[in-house]
Amino acid sequence: MRFVVAAAWAHKWLALIVGAQVLIWIASGLFFALYPIERVRSEHRLVEHAQAALNIAVLPSPADIRALVPATPTNLSYERDARGRAVAVASFAQGRPVLVDLDALRVLSPLTAEAASEIARAAIAHAPPVREARLITHGNPEYRGVLPAWRVALDDPEGLVVFVAADTGRVTARR
Question: Which of 80, 63, 59 is nearest to 72 (CA)?
Fold first, then answer.
């Protein structure tokens, strides 16, 4: 008789625990089914830039860029950052990439808090002022991207946070 009572008690509590978990799964599944994933990813806040093409004739040569970086890059990409500035990203077999401003021909990485804040605000439409810019050097549950990165918190009701890679100046995540 004792076994039946203990089994009934265990069955009741296990059913309650499993049932609560199933209800949470259903609620979160409904949320993500009904709420557009673009809004969850803050894609509705991105600025749509009509990027001007880079004029190859006036860009510095790879030799000019190699003179600025610590070693010979394995990859050199020319692009525009979120602010529309012409930059080059030099990647290496070992070590962190280096960001070079092509107009001033100077190394920008690692970015300062001000530069990361400018890039974050330029990437977001109608961006509010920056509340905080903090350098992240260790992974955490909020951000698992390229490190080091700047966590730029904007002062808006949605609590938008933009992550900018400190070495490349690329916007790597939005939360």
Answer: 63
Q: Which two tokens stand for residue 105?
A: 């021909």
**DSSP string for 95-163:** S--EEEETTTTEE-PSPPHHHHHHHHHHHBTT---EEEEEEE-S-BTTB-SSSSEEEEEE-STT--EEE
| pLDDT tens readout for residues 86-134 | 899 999 999 899 999 988 899 998 999 999 999 999 998 888 899 999 9
The pTM of this model reads 0.77
Return the residue matching tokens 């549950």: 141
Tokens for 116?
A: 């990361």
120/123 Cα distance (integer angstroms): 5
Q: List, for residues 12-56, the tens digit of each pLDDT value.
A: 999 999 999 999 999 989 988 888 877 776 776 777 766 677 777
